[in-house]
Amino acid sequence: RPLRIDVVTIFPEYLEPLRAALLGRALDRGLLELGVHDLRDWTHDVHRAVDDAPYGGGPGMVMKPQVWGDALDDVCGERTRLIVPTPAGRPFTQRLAHEYAEQEHLVFACGRYEGIDQRVLTDAARRMPVDEVSIGDYVLVGGEAAVLVIAEAVVRLLPGVLGNPVSAEQDSFSDGLLEGPSYTRPEVWRELAVPSVLRSGNHALIERHRRDEALARTFHRRPDLLERLAADDLDARDRAV
Ligand code: 6GU
C-alpha cells in the first residue's frame, strides 16, 4: 500500500518540489500519493481571510480556527496522523521519520504568521494523533520548508524508494553516530591520499577504521549524541578512541 501525504497551506506552489526528483519518482512508481491543498479554499468570506489578531494582544496574526477546522475535516480520515510544523514543536528525528514511514496517511498543516489557533489542534487530537514538530533551533517564516524536509526524510525510507536498501541502514544516526568521510578514485588527488587502510582489502580493519572516524567526528561535532549512546553500544575499543 502506498503512503498518502496531504499538505494544507496558503502557498501550494511552495510544495511543487515534492513532485520532483526522489519524491517524484516515488509518485510515478505508485509508492506515494500526494495532495496539496490551498487553505483559502475553505475560507468563508469574500476577502478569503485566514488570520486574525491574537487574543491578549501582541505582534503578528493567528490563523483562524473555523477555516482550519473545515479544511482538516475534509482532508483528514480515519487513519490520519496530523503533523504541524512549528519551531515550538518537539524535535523531528530519524526515529520519528521511521515512525511516519509506517503510517498510512500523513496530513501536514502549515501555519504562517504566529501559528494556528491552538483549539484546532486540541480538537483534532480528539480524533487522531497530532504531532507539533520542529526541524531545528531556528525560526522559519512558515511550515512549508519544514514539510519538504520531513517528507523527504520519510519517503526515502519507504520500501522500494531507495535503489539500495542497505544504504539507509548505514546512515548517520542509524547507529547513533555521525557517518565518517567517504572517498573514491583517484588514490591521490591534489597531493591528498585516500587513507591506505581503505585500500588494504582487510575488511575487519576497514570496519574498525570507519567506526573510529565516526566516533571522532561525533565527538567533535555532536558530543550530545555520544552522551545519549547507551553504555552497551560502546565497546572497549570504542572507548580508546
Ligand atoms: Cl517545523 N516550522 C517553522 N515555522 N519554523 C521552524 C520549524 C518549523 N522548525 C524550525 N523552525
From TrEMBL:
It holds the Pfam family tRNA_m1G_MT. It is found in: Cytoplasm. It catalyses: guanosine(37) in tRNA + S-adenosyl-L-methionine = N(1)-methylguanosine(37) in tRNA + S-adenosyl-L-homocysteine + H(+). Its main location: cytoplasm. One of its GO terms (molecular function) is tRNA (guanine(37)-N1)-methyltransferase activity. It is an enzyme of class 2 (transferase). Keywords: Cytoplasm, Methyltransferase, S-adenosyl-L-methionine, Transferase, tRNA processing. S-adenosyl-L-methionine binds at G111, I135, G136, D137, Y138, V139, L140. Its EC number is 2.1.1.228. One of its GO terms (biological process) is tRNA N1-guanine methylation. Residues 3-227 form the tRNA methyltransferase TRMD/TRM10-type domain. InterPro entries: Alpha/beta_knot_MTases, tRNA_m1G_MeTrfase_C_sf, tRNA_m1G_MeTrfase_TrmD, tRNA_m1G_MTases_N, tRNA_MeTrfase_TRMD/TRM10. The keyword Amino-acid biosynthesis does not apply. One of its GO terms (cellular component) is cytosol. Specifically methylates guanosine-37 in various tRNAs. NCBIfam families: PRK00026.1, trmD. Homodimer. Belongs to the RNA methyltransferase TrmD family. This is tRNA (guanine-N(1)-)-methyltransferase. It comes from Saccharomonospora piscinae.
